[in-house]
Each structure stands twice: as C-alpha cells, then as structure tokens.
Design brief:
single chain; alpha+beta; NE0471 N-terminal domain-like; 3-stranded antiparallel sheet; 9 strands
Length: about 130
C-alpha cells in the first residue's frame, strides 16, 4: 500500500508497509520530503483505514484481449491495446488489485495506478510516460 503526496513544487510517493518509506519524489526539496514523511507517519492509521475501507473490486476474467474488473456493481473491460502494462503480466499480478478510493485502483505487484474514470474513458487519458530521474 502506498500514498501520493502532492505539493506545488512536485510530488512524492511513500510506501506504507512494512514501514513508511519514500518510494519516489519529483521536484521537492529534502526538507519538504521530510515534512511530508512526518505527516504520513503522524496520520498512518487514518491513511491505512481510508485505503482499506469497503470499496469492493474483483478481477472476474482475463483473456488474450484484456481483463474484466468488477468495481462495486460496475463491470469494466481493460483491453490490452489500451492498457498494455497488463499484457505480459501473470494472473497473480493482475489479480492483486486494491481499490484505494472510489476512483483509484492500484496493482501493487505491477506498481500500476489507474483511475476508474481512465478505464471508463481511455480516449480522454492518452498514454504518457514520464522519465524517472
């Protein structure tokens, strides 16, 4: 499980388990990262509770064309042509998915974050990759 922290100067991602640890950061001064980490540590249980609340999600099928998710009571299809990160993933990697908020899905074994809206309307969210520095 992880949390993203946004700041006007950049952003950071922190792993929450087994302990709070900086995963990545972009554009933030060292002292800002430290302050963000302290906030995450101070509110860790609240963050974990919010991320494990009752937002049901289940992978219901995987075929050579894509995968189907049951998100609450809505079934969504993720075609591999539009979501290529899943094409070569194992069933286990695809199946380990968390619905961290009503609109945020996270595949921890693949380190993939997607919004439910981007699955519903992929044309509005073109594939873009950012280089890690």
């Amino acid at each position: 499980m992880h949390v993203h922290v946004s700041h006007p100067d950049g952003e950071a991602k922190f792993w929450l388990k087994p302990e709070v640890e900086l995963a990545t950061q972009t554009g933030l001064a060292k002292h800002v990262v430290g302050e963000a980490q302290q906030l995450v540590e101070d509110h860790l249980q609240e963050i974990i509770d919010a991320g494990t609340s009752t937002f049901p999600i289940e992978v219901t099928n995987v075929s050579r064309h894509g995968l189907w998710l049951l998100v609450g009571d809505e079934e969504l299809f993720l075609p591999f042509e539009q979501f290529p990160w899943f094409r070569d993933a194992s069933i286990e990697e695809i199946s380990v998915v968390e619905r961290q908020t009503a609109d945020h899905l996270y595949w921890s074994l693949l380190d993939i974050d997607l919004s439910v809206e981007s699955i519903r309307n992929p044309a509005a969210f073109p594939l873009v990759a950012r280089r890690q520095r």
